[in-house]
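lol ok so funny story. i was supposed to be doing the assay writeup but got distracted and ended up predicting the structure for this chain instead. priorities right. anyway since i did it might as well share w the group, maybe its usefull for someone
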Amino acid sequence: MSDLFFNGVFIGTVKNSLRFIKKIKKERREGNLSYLMNLMYDEKHDNVIITTEKGRARRPLIIVENGKPKLTKEYIKKLKNGEITWNNLVKEGVIEYLDASEEENSKIVINEDELTEEHTHLEISSLIILGNQASMVPYAEHNTATRDIYGSKLLKQGLGIYASNYLIRSDTDSNILHYVQKPLVDTIMWKLMNYDIHPIGCNVIIAIMTWDGYNIEDAIVINKSSIERGMYRSTYFRPYKSEELRYAGGIKDLICIPEKEVKGYRMEKVYVHLEDDGIINPEANIMIGDVLVGKTSPPRFLASLEEFRVGVEARRETSTTVKLQGNGVVDSVMISESSEGNKIIKTKVREQRIPEIGDKFSSRYGQKGVIGMIVPHESMPFTASGITPDIIFSPFSIPPRMTFAQVIECLAGKVAALRGTPINGTPFNNENETDLRKELLKLGFKDNGSETMYDGRTGKEYKARIMTGNMFYMKLRMMVSSKMQSRARGPLALLTRQPTEGKAKEGGLRLGEMEKDCLISHGATLFLKERFDSDKSVMPVCKRCGTIAIFNKFKNKGLCPICGEKSEITLIEMSYAFKLLLDELKSLCIYPKLHIKPKS
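and the output, tada:
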């Protein structure tokens, strides 16, 4: 007797579980039961589980009976002619949807040639096993699984035209790549997902070779002239928002050019781009710290008494300024109203990003890397026919990662460029390598894609033949100009008196144990002392009881709250974080005592 569960609830028992499951499946395929239902037999616990709940991931499969699929040529012909639809196939028991639990009791075959009488289902297409993203990687069946996963993840990071209406949108962190192209080698999924109208990269000429170690590991060497012609140039958009808020008592913010008497008034030069209404003019060239929208606010509630003055002096400056990421141009200004009826101004700043050393690039196979060197055109290697590559990629990156699909794409891209038509690289159903080699041979090139190349600096011929071809490369959103951070002086955290954390807060870079060890090994002791002195404080300490005392700078006199008049106060240099620790120990009723010794 097997226990029967329906959506996790026990409802009875079944005598012959396998016969029961067979009967239920038959009724479902005939349309007498809902096709949304799935069932499985848990052999370990002897349970029959039926589920109809929402939120299950289900996928369609072709039903197989007696070793033959139920989707025949007649059905396919009717589908092409429009006589039947997909829903007809589901209703007639040709296609059925399985969830993860029912798949446990099913034997699914990928290719029809491998069908046996033991199989219960056939995949509609072998491409389905890869999913949406991974099936966009050409020739994915030639790679290891990990590289296909990496490649599908990197497709999400590639820059391109993410939306056709990007000019009127105010997205938080958006990039637009100029001169985007469709890939020469694509898959059927690129067309099904409309990626052709949202391209995310460029077709570039690559040479697989080393170049003086500047493309060591994953780095790439890039042609300077290609960048100057506009390759991989992009625009970064950063939105800013300012709202004229209303407060209790009828007071409100005021968008205007702040007057000099206002508290917190900045330097006069940061307001030069503002119009008479306090809003910046579109297409104005701005720098870090420039004001985009001038605004003054009333004094804060519960502020100190000196703030409650009359007129302009009572207000404080709360303008929207350009952040620390860099200079740019005001792209657009939008004036509107919020749902509360407040005036709202949205400004968008654009910044041109030209590829530089350290910017991240990737192929569609998880082979990501940064620019190691930008080389002038005349110093780049060239082929016998005068072709100069845009990118030089290291050959040592391919064998350990087994991304053989990248080499095939290089070959296929070369054929596509020469014959003038794109190549289908759909996994399991593509133009195979043998045919590509034959076609390349007919076009007058070596069948393996290699060519004789010459050193641009010396003019000498390289002894080895070098593989060159066309490949689809993506510029990723990780760029040096977004990540670069440095600071000399800046704001401190109120509690610890140490530099703030994070680039947006003008924060410092954390120096940890390993960084400390590096500086010690280099003998940079003065630099190390400076780094660790960020929260240096001079504290009065009582020699008698060893606790932190009180010191009056004006009277130049110290007093210990424990020892009173008998106290012996001395000034000790320590980290403010250590002083904070002592205070926290006191709050736990622990008496931290400092033993003061004279300098020896």
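The chain has a mean pLDDT of 90. The longest strand covers residues 343-353.
back to the writeup now i swear
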